[in-house]
Amino acid sequence: MNTIAYNFLAIYRRELQSYFASPLAYAIAAIFWLLAGILFTATLDGIIQQTAAYDLQAQSGFQLPPVDAPYEFIRAFLGVMGSLSLFVLPLLSMGLYAEERKRGTLELLATSPITNWAVAVGKLLGVLTFFITMSLPLLLYEAIALSSVNPPVQFSVLLLGHVGLILLAAAVLSLGMFISSLTESTILAAIFTFALVLSLWIIDVAAKSLGGAFGDALLHLSLLKHYTNLIQGIVDTSSLVLFFSYILLGVFLTAQSIDALRFQRS
What we know:
The protein is mostly helical. Helix content is 83%, strand content 0%.
């Protein structure tokens, strides 16, 4: 047990250090922060304008339902950040195994005594930790914007939304890791990962058009539907189960992919 834990931690540290030492990773982070800042400003400005228009209508005598502007801001901002992450996450996952194949070190991992699960989980947690580090400034943005709100925003709503973003990232990175294990081309890995997660993101459109039991089954696979539940503050067990299922599926398929390579080399 100690050997497995040591091997897992060794893979995790190695993967995390590779991201913090990679110019490409810093370039991705810089673009992510720039776009996140632009989207934050645009979302906040849009909510302020909507609130001002709402107050004007209320003062004119219109009977309007109450609107929680801070909650609407959190929901809208995390919604666009989820969409932005769909473009960034494939770039982070594309080299998880593809680079190993290109350098010829994947064969060493496949034939080493380290279990495939330990390698896959270590790599996944390494890149997920880097993404969480990238996401920390978002909390600072929101804390500054919501610091003067009265009554204060419930921290549990904000926390659940960011947990949803992390779960979305873990699911996408896990599936991207599997695709990366199938090719030595990082570009192809990024393209196929983006195509897959985009399909899972918009599958609810097809599900609603089909309807019936099959449509309901497709709707349950939608990343957008379950991510929206979490950023709206809805603790839905089915959403948590779906995200963890995608995470485990990606890790399992990656381990099987490397195991197939191990079998070929034996």
